[in-house]
Amino acid sequence: MKTKNAPPAKKPATAKPVARAAPGKAAGAPARAAAPPAPASPASTLGLKLRHARLVAGYTLLQLSHKAGCSESLISKLERGHATPSFAMLHRLAVALDTNIAALTSDEAPPESPVLRLGERAVIKSGGIALERLVLPKRGGLLQANIHIVSPGEASDGQIEHVGEEVGYVLEGTLELMLGEATYTIGAGDAFTFPSSVPHGYRNVGTDVAKVLWVNSPATF
Q: SS3 helix, strand, coil % of the chain, rounded to 5?
């Protein structure tokens, strides 16, 4: 009796390698788009504009420091975005560079509309003092207006003087206005005016935030 040969044994199926998802990603999930770059900080924006204005004027760090009455190292730190100046210091730099603070700090073009809505106006800050822009800088513009917002106890960094005229109206709070050797205490509803050539500064001597509508011509802030 003949014996039939048994059929050859089947080879076990080889498992196909399974691709593993990268850690933190689900299998089959689409790749995420790269995050947009973070916006430049106000300090770095100021630094770039300050350096550009200095180079256009043809000044070295040392020459500008002499004109603005500050140290060369301070200007270097400002240009690299490693320091934040007071408004008085920034004003001295702007005057030395024949420009104004708004041109050094604003990266927005003047609006086409004559209306600037509440909450849409640019605000720049230095310590406990902020300037809310009512007029953005434009070439040849003579008028500048801001709302100075001054926290209790805060003061301008000394007194400044320059060419022009100024007028102000206190919206809220109490300020001590310093004009040369004279000092005036002013509150909500009070107005003032003086030639910009008179050394001027202010201090919030009240317990609440002070707000002052401040207009000057030509533009320096």
A: 20, 25, 55
Pick the closest to residue 192 from 174, 170, 217 (CA basis): 170
Mean pLDDT of 28-49: 60
Residue pair 43/83 in contact by the 8 Å Cβ criterion = yes
Tell me: pLDDT of 1 over 50: no
pLDDT-based confidence at residue 20 (cuts at 50, 70, 90) = low
Q: Which long-range contacts (CB under 8 A, 24 or more apart) does 123-132 make?
A: 123/149, 124/42, 125/42, 126/84, 126/85, 126/86, 126/87, 126/90, 127/84, 127/86, 127/154, 128/153, 128/154, 129/87, 129/154, 129/156, 131/87, 131/101, 131/221
